[in-house]
Amino acid sequence: MPTVTSDAPATGAQTGLRHEVEEFYARHFQAGDGGDAAAWAEGFAVDGSFSSNARPEPVVSRAVILPAVTAMFAARTAEGVQHRHMLTQLTVEPREDGTVLTRSYVLVVSTPREGGPTLLASTLVTDVLNREGGALRILARHVDRDDLPPTSTL
Fold first, then answer.
1. Under 8 Å CB-to-CB from 64, ≥6 apart: which residues?
2. 42-72 pLDDT, tens per residue?
3. N or C terminus of the chain with fewer C-beta within 10 Å?
4. How far is CA 136 from CA 18, 44, 47, 73, 127, in A?
């Protein structure tokens, strides 16, 4: 994975984009942790994709992502478990084609109704964001769980 470093101060446009990306992720992960599958799936582009080193095949298109995540959220609710996604170390890289490459570490904390929280997963999330109707959307997401060999291709 390439590393980008710069000593140059951020421009106003870069600062604005970073703020927009941070706000996007706050709303996206809060929707997921709150069990709002429709709002979470809306974070993906119509033809967006989700892949992971923990799953054999990517899930492609919002229309396919929504029922998959709806079932996953329902199962979590039935189990009486609350998840919280803690996003840290976010990098935001605008690309020449107008997309934005982001990378972040995301810790997933799982808390049952009775009992204490446990760390469910430590991950590297790599997203390619684009604009759809003026709003940021995930064109491609790849999640590498740290306990499995990495497979990120974005």
1. none
2. 999 999 999 999 998 999 999 999 999 999 9
3. N
4. 12, 9, 13, 23, 11
